[in-house]
Specification:
The protein is mainly beta and 184 residues long. The protein has a single domain (23-182), classed as Pnp Oxidase, Chain A. The chain is built from three helices and nine strands; from the N terminus they run H-E-E-E-E-E-H-H-E-E-E-E. The radius of gyration is 22 Å and the shape is globular. The relative contact order is 0.20.
């Protein structure tokens, strides 16, 4: 049985993995947040990016419909592309700087004093997600990089506090965007 399970050799498997640069680890990433130029905040995005605990790569899916031909069969065909929000999970600190930064951006989109909404071009930024291999000692050359274009925060999650809980605080930001590009 040529090529079957009985011919499996771990050395060949490892050689194939090595030829692709090894396997990717989930904990070798950075996120670069570029807010809109008109955002006024005492918190610099670069000062809180290291607090990102988890991030998801963007997903892409097609909305589909059934195309029927002559009543005989249905063929599923795409008619639009959809982009799902990207979730950033931040670790909380006692100065609340990460959360304050996102409060400022949300307030920039719509003021809670006047309830006036900013123009779209005034509240969008970019978010770059980079992944590195384990041999890299610095973050100068990512192995894979995705840039979320026209990005903005849609949601900031609630934080549940309680006397019976001594866990560390974290919170999630959902980032929506118009499109994403691979920059590697």
């Amino acid at each position: 049985m040529a090529g079957g399970i009985s011919d499996f050799a771990i050395n060949e498997f490892m050689a194939k993995i090595d030829s692709k640069g090894s396997l990717v680890k989930r904990n070798r990433f950075t996120v670069e947040i570029t807010p809109p130029r008109s955002l006024v905040s005492e918190i610099n995005a670069a000062d809180i990016e290291f607090l990102i605990k988890t991030v998801s790569f963007p997903s892409r899916a097609f909305g589909t419909t059934n195309y029927r031909y002559g009543g005989k069969f249905g063929l599923e065909v795409p008619y639009e592309m959809t982009e799902e929000p990207v979730a950033l999970t931040f670790q909380g600190t006692n100065d609340w700087s990460a959360r304050k930064f996102w409060y400022d951006w949300l307030e920039h989109i719509q003021s809670t004093n006047s309830y006036n909404m900013q123009y779209y071009k005034e509240f969008i930024g970019t978010v770059k997600i980079s992944v590195y291999d384990e041999t890299q000692q610095n973050a100068s050359q990512p192995r894979h990089k995705v840039c979320l274009q026209e990005a903005w925060p849609k949601t900031i999650s609630a934080i549940g506090l309680g006397w019976d809980n001594s866990e560390l605080v974290d919170f999630e930001i959902d980032i929506v965007y118009s499109w994403w590009e691979i920059e590697t």
